[in-house]
Structures are given as structure tokens and as C-alpha cells.
Amino acid sequence: MRDAIVMLLIAGGTFFFAVGAIGLLRLPDVFTRIHATTKCDTLGAGLILAALMIHDGWSVPSLKVFMVLAFLWATNPAGSHLLARAVYRSGEAPVEVMDLTGTKGGSQIE
Amino acid sequence: MFTRTVMGWTAVLAVFWVGLAGAINPQVVVIGILGSWLVVLANRRSLLSLEECPGLNLRGMLLWAQYGLCFLAELVKSNIAVARLVLSPRMEITPRIVRLPGRLRTELARVILCNSITLTPGTLTVDMDERAFAVHAITEQAALGARDWIMEQLLLRIEGTDVSRERG
Fold first, then answer.
1. Taking CA B121 as the corner, what is the angle to CA A9 and CA A93, rounded to the nearest 5 degrees?
2. Which end of chain B has the smaller Cβ count within 10 Å, N or C?
3. Closest CA relative to residue B123, chosen from B69, B159, B77
4. Domain ranges in chain B?
5. B chain contacts of residue A56, beta-carbon cutoff 8 Å
6. Between the CA of residue B4 and those of A52, B48, B50, B81, B109, what are the distances in Å?
């Protein structure tokens, strides 16, 4: 029973990694490609690491795997955000802008 | 050198160290505490203090737990949406950047919201300051979904802002 769940989770994780790789190849510009790769890290790595934790049960290695997942989820958005902000501010990739702020509000963001 | 913030972070790191070591004996604990204290001292200018954390009461803790569960649900939902988009033959994407008003008061809440937006596939925070966010969305639907997102509502409640008055 446990093995079945583990296999299912690993299959799911592999699927999302594959989708991320396909997206990286198919999508047209920097921003949309970053979208594809964040998906790998969240559900792809998430499901596979969850499978490892279930496989090992309540143990110290499981706790460490959980920490790997926590740090992955904490650092991945920081990296993606920095990459995207650098591209956005440099203006290298022109993109349509929709303003939903209503008022100007004194923000520095253009 | 021994303020509440420094000692608190030292305790957190020391517990983390013992967890990684996987064994509790005097040697591990002493080295852990000393090492953690040095690391915390080296980084003491960028430490987050308890006063900067919103929602440190029973009601706030429940809301944080709700935030975590809600986030997992959003994650699965948007992952499937983006996977479907990437695998569809015609791949109908309408990428754009939306500027959204930033209504959160505390820096910690803003950072957590930005990271949640980035971790959720289909949306990506490209810039932020105190008053606004710039979010890149892969479709128009994802862009509109980022406005009044349920996660932002939860963070506003954690901060204790009256959401109904805010919107009226």
C-alpha cells in the first residue's frame, strides 16, 4: 500500500518535471520560461520529496528531506524574482502592462 | 550581543543543528550553541525581530495554518492549469504584466505574499515596493486572478486590517 502511494507520487513528480522541461523549450520568452521552471521546483520536487518522506516513515532522514523541501520553497522564489526583476528593469523583454492599482499611489514601480 | 532577537535566533539555529546532527550529546549541543551564536552575531543587522512578525497570537496562528493549507491548494490548482497550457498543441498564452495595489502594512507579509505569487505557477512577481506589486502572468485569466487573491485577504486578516472597510 505504502509502495503504491510512493510510486504514484514519484510518477506525478516526474510528470511535472517533464512538463517544466517541455515548457522551457516551447515557451517564447524569458518570463514565460521562468514560469515553466518554477513549476518543476514546486510540485515536481515537492511530490518526489514527499514520496521519499513517506517511504522512510517517521525518521531523522525524513526530517532532513522535509528541510530540503522547506529551503527549496524558500529560496526558489527569491531566485526567480531576482532573475525576472533584472529582465524587467533592463527592458530587454517588452511586455504588455495592465494597471489595476487604480490610483498612482506614489509607487516607484513603473 | 545578548538581546532577545539574537538569543531567539541562536536557539532556533541550535535546535536546527541538533536536528541535522541526529544525536544529542554534550559535544554536539555545545558546539551547536556556540556556532549558532557566532553565525547570528555575524548577521545581526538583517535579523527579523519578533515585533516585525504579524499574527503571533492564537487567532494569528490559526490564520497562518489556514494560509499554509490554502497555499497548497492554490499550488496544485495552478500547476494543473499551467501544465494543461504547456501541453496543449496551440499553447494559447497571453503573457502580460499587471500592476496591483499593495495593501499590506508589514514587510514580512509583503515578502511572503510575493514569494507565494512567484511559487504559484502562472504568476511571477517582477517588482515590488511599499505601494504596489508588478506581477507577470502567463494568461489574462491568471492576471485577473492575482487581484484580490485569497492569500492576500488572509495576510490582511493576519495583520488585523479590516478587509471590508479597506475595500469600501
1. 140
2. C
3. B77
4. 4-47, 53-163
5. none
6. 37, 11, 9, 45, 22
CB distance B91 to A47 below 8 Å: no
pLDDT of residue A13: 92
Which is it for the CA torsion B112, B115, B121, B122, positive or negative? positive
Q: What is the grid cell recorded at B113?
A: 505574499
What does each C-alpha distance from B162 to A1, B58, B107 come to in angstroms?
A: 47, 18, 18
B98-156 residue pLDDT tens = 888 888 888 888 888 888 888 887 888 888 877 788 888 888 777 777 777 788 888 88
CA–CA separation, A56 and A58 (whole Å): 7
Using a CB–CB cutoff of 8 Å, tell me whether B141 touches chain A.
no
Partner residue facing B119 (CB), from A60, A73, A89 = A73
Q: How many CB pairs under 8 A join A and B?
A: 142
What ipTM score was computed for the predicted complex, to two decimals? Answer: 0.76
Residues in chain B: 168
- Contacts B133 to A, Cβ<8 Å: 109
Three-class SS state of B125: strand
Q: Give the separation between CA A104 and CA B10, rounded to whole angstroms.
A: 43
